[in-house]
UniProtKB/TrEMBL annotation:
It holds the Pfam family NMT1_2. The keyword Cell inner membrane applies. Keywords: Cell inner membrane, Cell membrane, Membrane, Transport. It is found in: Endomembrane system. It comes from the Bacteria. CDD domains: PBP2_NrtA_CpmA_like (cd13553). Gene3D superfamilies: Periplasmic binding protein-like II. This is CmpA/NrtA family ABC transporter substrate-binding protein. It comes from Bosea rubneri.
Amino acid sequence: MTLHLRVGFMPLIDSALIIAAKDEGFAEVEGLDLELVREVSWSNLRDKLNVRLLDAAHMLGPAAVAATLGIGGVRAPMAVPIALNLDGSAITLSLRRFEEMARLAQGDLADPMVSAAALAALVARRRASGLPQLTFSAVFGFSSHTYLLCEWLAKGGLKLGDDIRFEVVPPPQTVEALSSGRVDGFCAGAPWNAAAVAAGIGAMLHCGVDLRSDCPDKVLAWRADDADRRSNAVARLNAAILRAGDWVQEPANGERLALHLSRPDRLALPAELIAPVLRFSLIQGGGRPPRRVERFIRFDREALKPNRAHADWILASMEAAGQVVRTADMLAQARAMFLPALFLDSSS
C-alpha cells in the first residue's frame, strides 16, 4: 500500500537527499508518495511539523533540540531517526568588510585565528571612531551556523551579540541582506555563500570545516509521538533517504542532482551555480581563485547515522552562546531524541 507523506524543506543543498529520494524514485521504491513542501523559514518548518501540517521536516539539529526542550518559547518534542548531512556551511562577508579585514590581517586571512584577530582590530577601530557595530547573521538562533560564528569570534576575543550585532536571516534572504547593507556578513549553508560571491557582493571567508569538521547540521525530524506510533513510515522514509544518499555519493550523478536542485520549486538557483559546490569547488570572491574543499559537506551513511554525542555539542554551544544553562535532565532529553536503533533497522 502506497503511503503519502508531506515533507517540508528549506532551499539548501543539504536538502539534497530528500529531493533525490523524490525525484529519482527512491521513495516510490519504498512505497511512498512523497510530497515536498518548500518553506521560507526554519520556524515555519518547526511549527507546521508540530501541528501536523507536515509529516516530517528537513530541520536544523539545534532547532530540533531547542523545540524539544522548549527553549525559545516554543515546545514541540521531536525525534531524529536519521540525519541528512554533516558540515556544508560557510561564512561570507561583504566585499567592503573583507577588504578592510585583509588590510588589517597580520598573516594569512585564510587562518581563522588571523581573520578573527583582524575582525577584532576592525571592531576596535570602529568603536574608537564612534561607528555602528558590525552586524552578522545566521539562519536561525538555534543553529550550527550561530555556534560556528560564536566559535570563530571567540578566537579574536569577541562575543556575538555584544561586540557584533546579531540578526536571524533565512537562507534565501542572505544575499539580499548582504547586498542592501543590512548585514556585514553571514553564516549559512550552501549554496547561498556561492550565490553572494557570484552576485559580486560577497567574499567567502571560511568554510565550516575550517572551524569544525563533522559538525552536526541538518536532520530529518518527526514529531516525537509520530516516530513512536508510525515506525513503518519512519523506516520507509529512512530507507528512501539512504538509497538517495548512496546515489548522491556517486560523482557521475552530480550534474543530474544539480538539475533537480535548481528547479523553481526546489532551490530556484542556476544548476551552474550548484554543480561546482557538489564537486567541492567553492568560489571565494575577493580576487581569489576557486578553492577545493574535501568533505565540504557529507552525505555518506556514517554521516546520516543519528549521533547522540551531537546533543552534547549542541547543548554546550547553546550554553556558550548564552541561550541556556545546561542541566543533566536537558542533556538526557536531547540525547534521547536521536534514534540510532531506527536508523539501523532501516539500513540493514
